[in-house]
Structures are given as structure tokens and as C-alpha cells.
Write a structure and sequence with these properties.
By secondary structure, this protein is α/β, with parallel strands linked by helices. The chain has 5 helices and 5 strands, in the order βαβαβαβαβα. It is globular.
Amino acid sequence: MPRVLIVDDQEDIRELLRAIVEKDGHTTLQASNAREAETQLKDSVDLMLLDIDMPGETGVELLLRMRRGEVRPTVPTVFVTAYPERCSPLQATGFGANAVIVKPFRLEEVRRVLQRLLSAIA
């Protein structure tokens, strides 16, 4: 069963994403910041939903550290953002993300992205 790490500083967003992910039968882990995410990544994680704008280290900074090998393991990552103008899909790819979901997101959008990425690693 795939394990999805949800990283967002807003508890309501984490809970909403958790409900969507678990409804499709996946297991979730949660973190409210980059430091917690780094700890959670030590467990077996198949995919990460990562908020770009968090206090302290941003999602972009965490992902760049992962891609440089400073944080292990590297997992497929979907940026989640309320500010799409700060990170276009092309920029997200340059940072190492596999996709971008814009808040407020739709259930179908999240499910479609998860299905595409999780089927690629299955």
C-alpha cells in the first residue's frame, strides 16, 4: 500500500489532503514543517505532497536539499501552493517536483495527480 507524506503548515489542509489520499486506500504520514518532513522521510514514503510556502525552510528549499542528496530518500514530490505565480509548473520541474497542485484544489485534481504518479512507481 503506497505511503504518502503530506507536508503543510496548515492543519486543515493536511487533514483535507489526508482524507482524499486515504479515501483511495493509501496510507498517510503528516508533517507541519520541513524539519518534521525530513524525519518522516526516514520511514518508507512513496510520494510527498509538499507545501511551497511554510515558515522556516520552504518546500522549495527542502526539495532542493533532497535533490542534492542532503536529505534521503528522494521521492516523487507534488508541490501544493496557494500562490501559483511564485512557482509555475516549469519552475517546479526545475526544482525537482513532479507536479503542482494549486490551492484551493479539487478532489478530482488531487486524485488524478496521485494516481498518475503512484502508478508510475508501482
